[in-house]
Design goal:
single chain, mainly alpha, 84% helix, globular, Poly_Biosynth_Transport, transmembrane helix
Length: 511
């Protein structure tokens, strides 16, 4: 990785992280407020409507977003072709969703879903006009501008309009209007930043390379959507809106922070990986480093969430959501695995190895469907267990593919999980012992949760800084060397990183 690319990647991570942290804090407040203002059925109806619309989303874009980022050489005609396609497809799918919305009652016996689907379908138009601008910002690693736009839009739409409308009694529509408003604000802000041509073009030569890659990406995204949202579809069909609302809130409590953490990295990693697509050895090194660091971060967080689930539910959602506690605990084991395999998927995208990715996703759909059927008698917890087992299978399948693509042995790939698993075990045990003590003292849930967060964070940092696993030392040492930390001792943080890097070198040489 060149120093220029590394510099852009670091800057992108910095700004994306800042935006992610800000959004994560705001989302906690928003989720807590809305959970007290709305009934579980409202979240269930919006979740069902979103799933129905996502059936069309992947074909409304045809993978052109990823094609713009992945393509090594991008011309002005390619940009015009991408915008023309996205805008037209977004309009067409909005009309189709409006006309076909009544057929949703054939899947779910809930007529109230129809008007929600029709209004939320406006997101197709908005997304069609904004997709090219946001993709260009990602391709050029302009994450500072993108983070500012997304953060400001969230404040106005969700913390402003959403909560106010819910307080005024708009019910489920407060969720709908907030999501549409944010999409519109992001569309305007992204275009102001990117300023690309909006003139239509109808020369097939400009479309061909984008659709060759994007059409397969669209199919893959659609299949992944089916896999990821199969639980929502089946729970809504079999157990109804109330149980779906319970599952949805438990899922979001662990998925949302993980999504924010990984989205920050993935938006930077995909363009970086794409620039290294022809350099297999370097790509393999970056893949191992990225996966090691991500596993080190999210496994301890998720295991901490599993232990602290009762306090998280009571504090964030309220006492009326206690049914979601066991579901949250199971999902805390399953969801981190899905995010860790994300980098393997990005490698496939960057190197355009898409046929194998299709095979893996289809296989997983069959597996998880079978598991849902076998474990449905266990209710929501059974759905969570099915997801956990299928994610373990996904890891094995992707490791086989990475062995083929990047020539990485199974041991090298499994080794990247060790720092996260070991640190997570220490964090979980420590938080569990603390939680048992504080719960026996019958302290308020908020006091216990704050104590859990402080203790878990302290133990996690101590493990990373004072007792890093050998696999983590090697990856950190390599990353610091590539970023040229030793050449930039002028800042306070630079000097701290230099000292930490030197300690890693000594430990590595000792071993």
């Amino acid at each position: 990785m060149s120093k220029n690319l590394a510099s852009k990647a670091v800057s992108g991570l910095k700004w994306s992280s800042a935006g992610t942290i800000a959004n994560a804090v705001m989302q906690i407040g928003y989720t807590s407020a809305m959970a007290r203002l709305l009934a579980p059925e409202a979240f269930g109806l919006v979740a069902l409507s979103a799933v129905i619309l996502r059936f069309g989303y992947y074909f409304a874009n045809l993978g052109l977003n990823q094609a713009i980022v992945q393509k090594e050489e991008l011309t002005a005609d390619h940009i015009r072709a991408a915008f023309t396609s996205s805008a037209l497809l977004g309009t067409v799918f909005t009309i189709l969703a409006w006309l076909l919305a009544p057929f949703a009652t054939l899947i779910f016996d809930m007529p109230e879903v129809v008007p929600i689907v029709r209004v939320m379908a406006l997101a197709f138009v908005v997304g069609g006009f904004s997709a090219t601008a946001t993709s260009l910002l990602q391709r050029n690693m302009r994450f500072k501008e993108l983070s500012i736009v997304e953060t400001l839009s969230y404040v106005v739409s969700y913390l402003g309009a959403g909560i106010v409308l819910a307080y005024l009694g708009f019910g489920v529509w407060s969720l709908v209007y907030a999501s549409l408003l944010q999409a519109a604000l992001v569309a305007v802000g992204a275009y102001v930043m990117a300023r690309h041509s909006v003139l239509p073009i109808f020369d097939w030569a400009a479309y061909r390379p984008l659709f060759a890659y994007g059409s397969k990406m669209s199919i893959i995204s659609f299949l992944e959507f089916i896999y990821n949202d199969l639980a929502t579809l089946l729970i809504g069909r079999v157990l109804g809106a109330y149980r779906l609302g319970i599952y949805n809130r438990a899922f979001m409590l662990v998925n949302l922070p993980m999504y924010n953490l990984t989205r920050t990295v993935s938006r930077v990693v995909f363009p970086s990986f794409s620039k290294l697509q022809s350099e297999t050895e370097k790509l393999a090194q970056v893949y191992l480093s990225s996966t090691t660091l991500l596993a080190t971060l999210i496994i301890p967080v998720c295991l901490g969430i599993m232990v602290a689930a009762p306090e998280i539910v009571h504090v964030v959602l309220g006492s009326q959501w206690t049914d979601s506690i066991p579901v949250l605990q199971v999902l805390s084991l399953a969801i981190p695995l899905s995010f860790i395999t994300m980098f393997a998927g990005i490698v496939c995208d960057a190197k355009a190895v898409l046929n194998w990715k299709i095979v893996i996703t289809v296989t997983l759909i069959v597996v998880i469907s079978s598991l849902f059927f076998l474990l449905k008698s266990y209710g929501l917890v059974g759905f969570g267990l099915a997801l956990l087992i299928s994610e373990l299978i996904r890891i094995g399948m992707y490791q086989t593919l990475m062995k083929k693509i990047l020539q990485l042995s199974y041991w090298k790939q499994l080794r990247v999980y060790l720092p996260g698993v070991m640190n997570g075990a220490v964090v979980a045990i420590t938080v569990y012992l603390l939680s048992t003590l504080l719960r026996n003292m019958e302290l308020p849930h908020l006091v216990i949760l704050i104590s859990q967060m402080i203790t878990g964070g302290f133990v996690f940092l101590a493990m990373i800084l004072l007792f890093p696993h050998q696999a983590l030392k090697e990856q950190l040492h390599m990353i610091f060397a590539k970023l040229g930390v030793q050449d930039n001792p002028s800042s306070y943080y630079g000097r701290m990183l230099m000292r930490y890097r030197k300690s890693l070198v000594k430990e590595t040489e000792r071993v």
